[in-house]
Amino acid sequence: MEAPSDRVPLAERVEQLLAEEGPLPIVAAGHPVLRRRTVPYDGQLGDALLARFVRALRVTMRAAPGVGLAAPQVGVGLRIAVIEDPAPVPEEVRVARGREPQPFRVLVNPAYEAVGSERAAFFEGCLSVPGYQAVVTRHAAVRLTGQDERGRALDEEFTGWPARIVQHETDHLDGTLYLDRAEPRSLSCNAAAARYWGQPTAEEAARALGFDLP
């Protein structure tokens, strides 16, 4: 079923979103835009509008708060995402998850491929699936290619938690939610996750809830 916003040109749709002050509204699972492969960015917004849109994504991500945000999560089917992670976590979590601070960056037309065969499983959440977390097994290292907001080429390896962020946000641009890759038996509301599964790894959750880790 076509939504009314589907008939609005992308630039006009973005202008409408930016007309309101403050963070953009984040769409939740069930909205069709989250299940569609995005359109590659090839200048549809123009430099000035793109810059405004990127600023709005940054404001929205930080306000949520989150460590990444893809354009479809604000209702725009363009292949653009932003990531940033100050990594305010205890040392044992940082070490176990390979979570290192990441500066703000813009991913335009990103794609990733696995580097090596190692995989890692941790609880993961999503701003478009509020209230829940689940264990997702992902590549431990990936190579990201694409461009930044100025058209400069990106070709970089990510490992640990940054690799997870890159995969999560790029998946959004292909119409994939983290739940599609999650271990169903691990699905936990945020309150339960905080009460039972706050450990740096998912090993205890796997034993108690009855699922396998890689």
From TrEMBL:
<dbReference type="Pfam" id="PF01327">
    <property type="entry name" value="Pep_deformylase"/>
</dbReference>
<comment type="similarity">
    <text>Belongs to the polypeptide deformylase family.</text>
</comment>
<feature type="binding site">
    <location>
        <position position="172"/>
    </location>
    <ligand>
        <name>Fe cation</name>
    </ligand>
</feature>
<dbReference type="InterPro" id="IPR036821">
    <property type="entry name" value="Peptide_deformylase_sf"/>
</dbReference>
<feature type="binding site">
    <location>
        <position position="126"/>
    </location>
    <ligand>
        <name>Fe cation</name>
    </ligand>
</feature>
<keyword id="KW-0648">Protein biosynthesis</keyword>
<feature type="binding site">
    <location>
        <position position="168"/>
    </location>
    <ligand>
        <name>Fe cation</name>
    </ligand>
</feature>
<feature type="active site">
    <location>
        <position position="169"/>
    </location>
</feature>
<dbReference type="InterPro" id="IPR023635">
    <property type="entry name" value="Peptide_deformylase"/>
</dbReference>
<keyword id="KW-0479">Metal-binding</keyword>
<keyword id="KW-0378">Hydrolase</keyword>
<protein>
    <recommendedName>
        <fullName>Peptide deformylase</fullName>
        <ecNumber>3.5.1.88</ecNumber>
    </recommendedName>
</protein>
<keyword id="KW-0408">Iron</keyword>
<comment type="function">
    <text>Removes the formyl group from the N-terminal Met of newly synthesized proteins. Requires at least a dipeptide for an efficient rate of reaction. N-terminal L-methionine is a prerequisite for activity but the enzyme has broad specificity at other positions.</text>
</comment>
